[in-house]
Design a protein that fits this description.
Largest sheet: 4 strands, antiparallel
Helix content: 25-40%
Order of helices and strands: HHEHEHEHE
Mean pLDDT: 94
Low-confidence stretches: none
Number of helices: 5
Radius of gyration: 17 Å
Distance between the termini: 44 Å
Number of strands: 4
Length: 179
């Protein structure tokens, strides 16, 4: 019997992996994952996003050095998700939507990776200035997140805690705010 995965199946499959095996990711698979970020929506369709894929030394080691967790070194590739603040839309009150647009694109990456049996993790606590310097980013481009990507190791650091979510009635109210 043919079974097609639903979006909800893919979303439930995705978790923050912190242990990868050393298998190389085929470039075509990485391109499919990145295509999902390319087509992600953004405010006013500004698309203020750029991605740097790092999988070879010495650059990979330099990017890894921007983060204190040793597990990052197990990922065969790291996608550095960068926001272009000179292209992002600003709301009338001045709110810059670059980080929001990047979050949408990164979420597309994590879900597309899960759909391709790859694992990911959002890493936001890293030395942004060091990373920008290593990549020689222009002033208007900032690294937003490091996204390690690869095939999960045998245990993949999976935990049942990944399934713990608040009940729907704690996060949704109808016809006004009534929590």
């Amino acid at each position: 019997m043919f079974y097609m995965k639903s979006f909800l199946d893919i979303a439930k499959k995705r978790y923050s992996c912190r242990s990868y095996d050393s298998r190389e990711i085929p470039k075509g698979v990485l391109l499919d994952v990145l295509e999902s970020a390319r087509i992600a929506p953004s405010a006013t369709n500004a698309q203020p996003r750029q991605f740097v894929v790092v999988s070879t030394e010495p650059l990979r080691g330099q990017i890894i050095s921007c983060y204190s967790g040793l597990w990052l070194a197990s990922a065969p590739a790291i996608i550095v998700a960068c926001g272009n603040y000179s292209e992002s839309w600003h709301r009338a009150d001045g709110k810059d939507h670059c980080d929001i647009d990047m979050a949408i694109a990164i979420d597309h990456i994590t879900l597309a990776a899960a759909d391709n049996d790859l694992a990911t993790c959002w890493v936001c606590k890293f030395d942004v200035l060091k990373c920008a310097s290593i990549l020689q980013l222009p002033k208007n481009i900032a690294p937003i997140a490091l996204i390690p990507i690869g095939y999960p190791s045998e245990n993949g650091n999976y935990s049942e805690r990944h399934l713990l979510r608040k009940p729907i009635d704690e996060i949704v109210s109808w016809e006004g705010y009534n929590f």
